[in-house]
Amino acid sequence: MSAIAAPPARRKRRPMARAPQDTPAGLWTYLLLAVSMLFAAFPLYWMFVIATSNDEALAKLPPAIIPGDRFLTNVDEVFSLQDVYFAASLVNSVIVSTVVTASVLFFCSLAGFAFAKLRFKGSNALMVFVVLTLTVPNQLGIVALYIVMGKLGWNGTLLAVIAPGLVTAFGVFYMRQFIVNTVPDELVESARVDGATTMRVYATIVLPAIRPALAVLGLLTFVSTWNEFQWPLITLSGTDFPTSMVAVSDLASGNYVIYRRVLAGAFIATIPLLLMLFIGGRQIVRGIMEGAVKS
Amino acid sequence: MSSTRAAPAPPSRRPAPERGRSGADERRLTWRNRLYRFDMRYMPYLMIAPFFLLFLVFGLFPLLFNAVVSLRNYRLDDPTLPYWAGVENFSRLVADEDFWNALYNTFGIFLLSTVPQLLLALLVASLLNRQLRAQTWWRVGVLLPYVTPIVASTMVFSVFFSRDFGMANWVLGLFGIGGADDPIDWRADKMHAWIAIATMVNWKWIGYNALLYLAAMQSIPRDVYEAAAIDGAGQWKQLWRITVPMIQPVVLFTVILSTIGGLQLFTEPMLFDPNAQAATGGPNGEWQTIAQLIYKVGWKDLNLGYAAAMSWALFLIILVVAGLNYVLTNRLSGGRK
């Protein structure tokens, strides 16, 4: 707020005409932002605190806020619990998220390319259909999805978790927008004149040009697939190969819940995503912000 | 491809046009032509086919098939019932106290989470919409909750909101609320449970929505602010009179998004319950949401037909509420200028 209250002399020279994004942030802005950061980060930090503590940390006031030294002990307990299958669950989550991400990137960029640069009958109508499906909450078909998977014999296997995620309407939409804006028509045309097939154009011209968009979509897809809970719970619970989210929720079931174990498991299952945010944060931010302006 | 070349049928359809040329040469040419025509005409469809096939099978079909299941007796524990149930599932729904209770909870939590969420997101966005040092890191920072699995964060918040040694009660105690001798039992009544769950939802989505708003704010033309500054509008006034109306499309988008997401709330209410597997949302359903009730009816009571009817009802509710919110937000954020 103080940044705006400029000295009167300056105001006389020129009325405050700067847009907010051109105004340097003042002390208050930084302070308030720091408070928001604290709110955002504290639950994660505290998850780590309990993951490293003994049982007493949760039974005292004021609450513990400094990490203990039992992280490895707790983690060891989580991994050696008989009916939680924690190690397997991490492998499963890696498999599911990787396969889904690879598939989304391939199929959505193919379809995005077709919608952006190729002429074919019905392309406009079909694209409208894609945009409409963006708004369909497909969680609502979950009962029928379970029945379909039952008919296919896939319930209780990773296939049931992977199959529904293989393509997303958002992916097609996002890829189309990006290709429209970044791949020049002339480039596609001239490759065509040289006798390149459509797939060749895709491989040699489109793919290299859309690498940034692939990074964005890949990160967003991986994060959301890794975090999925409801459908994996329905189709995988009770089996001996859950995903990591189902395994963490299993840690917390039973009559007597040991929270240092639960949070140690939760923390381990969160680490891959924190790493992704650390490495690809810029791309994730960009993806979310670009999606906003275009929609 | 090789089968096309070997097939004898196509050449016979078209009488050989030029006999002078060598057969092999001509065959290669037509093969190329055919490949080219195939590539131009059908390749686009092949490229979009995987998306549409997978979406139809695992997205659209379940949604439609859901309607059929909702009209059937589909009990996993009793397959002997007659095939069709007619509207029985729906008439049961109307009289089902659990359903109305879950609907009430869902809306309560939805209101407590959506309104503060979007308002705070607006504030965070306007903080971020400044020339900042280490700009990218602030933006990445607000996304910490977004990448954190809801399963993990709900576990943390569950401990925060425990009655005896919870962080929430301790902090409130510092301000003279509750305190060690009279701690708040966050799982004992609706209002407290709703607040606890809404807090989790807010924590998760404020940063994400803030980035959506920030993106829109940065595409507002700069001269709009110039005009406002000349008119003497202060910062607060600028936010409400210029920024919000200018980013109205994105505001509408986030309202719709959080309506769709908020009415399907599942993970938070599930894992807030120490006895999560029962899916009852508290001993007396204090915070059982519809998505949770659907899970309980379908996979604990094994009555998929009834669960399908409930999903269908939820779908209609989402449509209506999303529509209402659209109109309402449209009025509120753009109406007064």
Automatic annotation (TrEMBL), chain A:
InterPro entries, per database record: MetI-like (IPR000515), MetI-like_sf (IPR035906)
GO BP annotations listed: transmembrane transport
Q: Which domain of life is it from?
A: Bacteria
**Keyword rRNA-binding included in the entry's annotation:** no
- CDD domains xrefs: TM_PBP2 (cd06261)
Tell me where it mainly resides: membrane
Record flagged with keyword Manganese: no
Q: Which UniProt keywords apply?
A: Cell membrane, Membrane, Transmembrane, Transmembrane helix, Transport
SUPFAM superfamilies assigned to the protein according to its UniProt record, in alphabetical order? MetI-like (SSF161098)
Region (Disordered) spans which residues?
1-20
Q: Matching PANTHER family, A to Z?
A: ABC TRANSPORTER PERMEASE PROTEIN MG189-RELATED (PTHR43744:SF12), ABC TRANSPORTER PERMEASE PROTEIN MG189-RELATED-RELATED (PTHR43744)
**One Pfam family hit:** BPD_transp_1
Q: Where in the cell is it found?
A: Cell membrane
Annotated transmembrane regions: 27-48, 84-113, 125-148, 154-174, 201-223, 258-279
Q: Which organism is it from?
A: Micromonospora humi
Which family does the entry's similarity section mention? Belongs to the binding-protein-dependent transport system permease family.
User: Which named protein is this?
Assistant: Carbohydrate ABC transporter membrane protein 2, CUT1 family (TC 3.A.1.1.-)
| Membrane topology according to the record | Multi-pass membrane protein
Q: Where is the ABC transmembrane type-1 domain?
A: 90-280
- This protein's GO CC annotations: plasma membrane
TrEMBL record, chain B:
Positions of the UniProt region annotated as Disordered: 1-24
* Major place of residence: membrane
Gene Ontology BP terms:
transmembrane transport
Q: Which UniProt keywords apply?
A: Cell membrane, Membrane, Transmembrane, Transmembrane helix, Transport
**Entry's InterPro entries?**
ABC_transporter_permease (IPR051393), MetI-like (IPR000515), MetI-like_sf (IPR035906)
Q: Which GO terms describe its cellular component?
A: plasma membrane
Bilayer topology: Multi-pass membrane protein
Q: What are the TM regions of this chain, as residue ranges? A: 42-65, 107-128, 140-161, 193-215, 246-266, 304-328
Which domain of life, per UniProt?
Answer: Bacteria
Where's it found, cell-wise? Cell membrane
Keyword Transmembrane assigned to the entry: answer is: yes
Which family does this protein fall into? Belongs to the binding-protein-dependent transport system permease family.
- The name under which this protein is listed is Cellobiose transport system permease protein
Native organism: Micromonospora humi
* Source species taxonomy: Bacteria, Bacillati, Actinomycetota, Actinomycetes, Micromonosporales
